[in-house]
Amino acid sequence: MSSDTFDVIVLGLGAMGSAAAYHLALRGKRVLGLEQYTAAHDRGSSHGESRIIRQAYHENPAYVPLVQRAYELWEQLEADTGQDILKLTGGLMIGSRESAVVQGTIRSAREHGLEYQTLDANELRRRFPTLRPRPDDMAVYEVKAGFLRPEVAVSAHLQQAERHAAELHFLESVERWTADASGDGVDVVTSRGRYRASRLVIAPGAWASRLLAELRIPFAIRRHSMCWFDPGAALEMFSPDRFPIYIWDVNGHEVFYGFPFTGGDGGGVKAAMHSGGDPCAPETLHAGSTDLEVAELRRCVARFIPALNGPVVRSVPCMYTLTPDEHFVLSVHPEFSQVAIAAGFSGHGFKFASVIGEVLADLSSVGSTKYEIGFLNPLRFGRDALACVAGASDQN
Ligand SMILES: Cc1cc2nc3c(=O)[nH]c(=O)nc-3n(C[C@H](O)[C@H](O)[C@H](O)COP(=O)(O)OP(=O)(O)OC[C@H]3O[C@@H](n4cnc5c(N)ncnc54)[C@H](O)[C@@H]3O)c2cc1C
């Protein structure tokens, strides 16, 4: 048992928690980070070699200022660590003219004055000869899109947090936390001890339903398999200088996406379905990918990017934690002012991790942030949904 008192405890050191630990340590806070697995592990939501980053955010223009700050912070992290984290390749958002992806991208780009081009199906095919759009497909090309390397990014945040004197414990699981009714402190009980701190950041990924049970948000956990295709002799057509990241809205229900060849150890060019996904629990994630998952993606790849349709050399499952509206939960805890929460990233959070670390550090230092995050407040799901347990929260 440790009787140490920290300024802030960070629960979960995945994408969001690692960034929060870094930003808090950078500000001179005495930080304890607690993670049930190892650093940059593959049992949650932040593994698989690549994550899309883009600015013309079709999901909601309100995310644009956040992602613009995220780019700056990723570049800063690269400069501080000498690591290769962010690669710009350009990005294609493809679908019918009326599709949510195309319309939403144009709306965000216009509202925020972002650089973009629209391509009809013929221009798209001419500029990117590996793609086979349908005659009524179009694309929005965004110059500043690209990909991040998630394992490198998480490791870099952790390394920088430790450099600024954060204490990080791995293979230590949080069993429960309680917050003082006075708003002054928190107690955290783990598999190895009990800790006390003034503040708590909860960034639990797919374990949100257990660690934030009192919010009563119906988080849905879905598994999504990432597949690496071997295009054989066509591999050179998928190099990052010739082939951008893409998101393809097939019919409003089916959406798939992918990357150029990113040079990962296991080879292959990665693609995945964004839509669908089978319900799962974190404990059963490593049941491998199913033939059905691979077959669903292969149908899209064969139809729209036939040159990529070689053998699948690897497939790895990962979890989405979906909120009812698929927007994040990022705020001070509605019941406990000394607790900040970051959850429900709904399959599109990684690109924001650097700025979310900064926001969580703001919320845990001064209780507010200059960034506009009101649209991510959990009270949008209704105050009645919250169980008002005065003075304590029991996660069992
Ligand atoms: C297949 C796939 C593709 C994706 N593609 C993109 C993309 O292209 N672009 C994009 O922006 N986003 C993408 N995302 C989404 C993005 O990766 C996630 O939103 C983000 O990684 C979530 O980060 P997190 O910190 O919430 O979760 P995690 O990184 O999983 O971190 C949560 C951490 O909390 C720890 N934890 C939980 N409970 C406890 C406990 N009791 N005690 C101690 N530790 C605990 C976990 O072990 C874990 O390490 C994708 C996700 C998947 C699965």
Features:
single chain, about 400 residues, alpha+beta, eight-stranded mixed sheet, about 25% strand, globular, disordered C terminus, binds flavin-adenine dinucleotide
Q: Would you give an account of this structure?
A:
The chain is an alpha+beta fold and 396 residues long. Helices cover 24% and strands 27% of the residues. The protein has eight helices and 20 strands. Strands 5, 6, 7, 13, 14, 15, 16, 17 and 18 form a nine-stranded mixed sheet that branches. Strands 1, 2, 9, 10, 11, 12, 19 and 20 form an eight-stranded mixed sheet that branches. Helix 2 (64-81) crosses helix 5. The longest helix is centred in the N-terminal third of the chain and has 18 residues, at 64-81. Mean pLDDT is 94; it is low at 387-396. Flavin-adenine dinucleotide binds at residues 11-17, 34-37, 44-46, 48, 51-52, 173-174, 203-207, 211, 224, 226, 272, 318-320, 345, 347-351. Residues 11-17, 34-37, 44-46, 48, 51-52, 173-174, 203-207, 211, 224, 226, 272, 318-320, 345, 347-351 line the site of flavin-adenine dinucleotide.
